[in-house]
Amino acid sequence: MNFQSVGTTLKTISPSVAHFSTTMVKSKPRHLVNMLELTNEELAALVTKAAGFKAQVRSGNPAPIEQHQKLLGKLVALVFSKRSTRTRISTEGAASYFGAQPMFLGKDDIQLGVNESFYDTTKVVSSMTSCIFARVAKHQEIVELCTHSSVPIINSLCDKFHPLQAIADLLTIKEAFGNKTSGLKLAWIGDSNNVINDLAIAALRSGISVAISIPKGIEFDQKISDSAKEIAESNNATFEIFNNPQDALINANIVVTDTWISMGEEAEKESKLKQFAGYRIDANMIKSGKAAENWKFMHCLPRHQEEVADDVFYDEKRSLVFEEAENRLYAAMAVIDSFVVNKGDLLK
């Protein structure tokens, strides 16, 4: 074959090569990183979808077979560098609901960040799965995963955000207050952490005012605070930060706390307990803080005795903690349906 015939052959096959190259290019997937990246309408759609899944599951009637075939034969990866109870169970349950095979990949199961770079591991895992639920230490790890993954990354907890918990919490609040959110007030009594970072934004997007009480010496994330104030103003709500729990509790409909000592901070326990003196929630604190008569209590678990007394945590009329925990399942189902099945179209 001479050079002329080679050129002719290349001209002949070039259209198909071009078509092949075009079809092989994948559009960038949409990831769930935090509540800041959602619109008010998208958050509301996720919560509504979660409520729909809950109603279907609790009805006792089998879901339509096509619901269980949406991800049939596909893998859902759970890349967890931190231990988990609710997140693991809810994610594996949600994946199974859609017919996918959940694959738990703990820190001792794969090479992520140990003998292999984030880039290499993410490229490999995302090439074989439909999405990756990532429960990691640092927010930068979520950023790296999103940068290199060819499938949706679902932030299942990092040191800065916890979006799945926020979706579950909004569902819990709507259930407790007759499907209403606008005009309510949420009081957070605790640390400045990943849970309140996302919960504050989600609440404000839903028209719920937020009052945060954190001890002196602890600073709330300034960027989140700035965004929270803007969202509050546009949703006819308020956003305030105090150091005295009683100031935050005034007229609060929802009282929320979380662990004061996050995973990885165990060495700071003694100093943290001193810093949080007077922050333990009990019925007397809520009464003296003049919370609303219909107040409810929430905690994302695991709970520790120093954070909240039994008279609040186990109050059958006030505490929503176990309903809140169950709602993590329906939040995960809504996220899989929206980000994976519907490819990031949250309003579909």
From TrEMBL:
Listed PROSITE patterns? CARBAMOYLTRANSFERASE
Is this entry keyworded Transferase?
Answer: yes
Q: What is its EC number?
A: 2.1.3.3
Where along the sequence do coiled-coil regions lie?
Answer: none
Q: Which UniProt keywords apply?
A: Transferase
Ranges of residues in domain Aspartate/ornithine carbamoyltransferase carbamoyl-P binding: 30-175
Any idea where the Aspartate/ornithine carbamoyltransferase Asp/Orn-binding domain is? 183-337
Q: Which InterPro entries match?
A: Asp/Orn_carbamoyltranf_P-bd, Asp/Orn_carbamoylTrfase, Asp/Orn_carbamoylTrfase_sf, Asp_carbamoyltransf_Asp/Orn-bd, Orn/put_carbamltrans
Q: Which family does it belong to?
A: Belongs to the aspartate/ornithine carbamoyltransferase superfamily. OTCase family.
Protein name from the UniProt record: ornithine carbamoyltransferase
Q: Which organism is it from?
A: [Candida] anglica
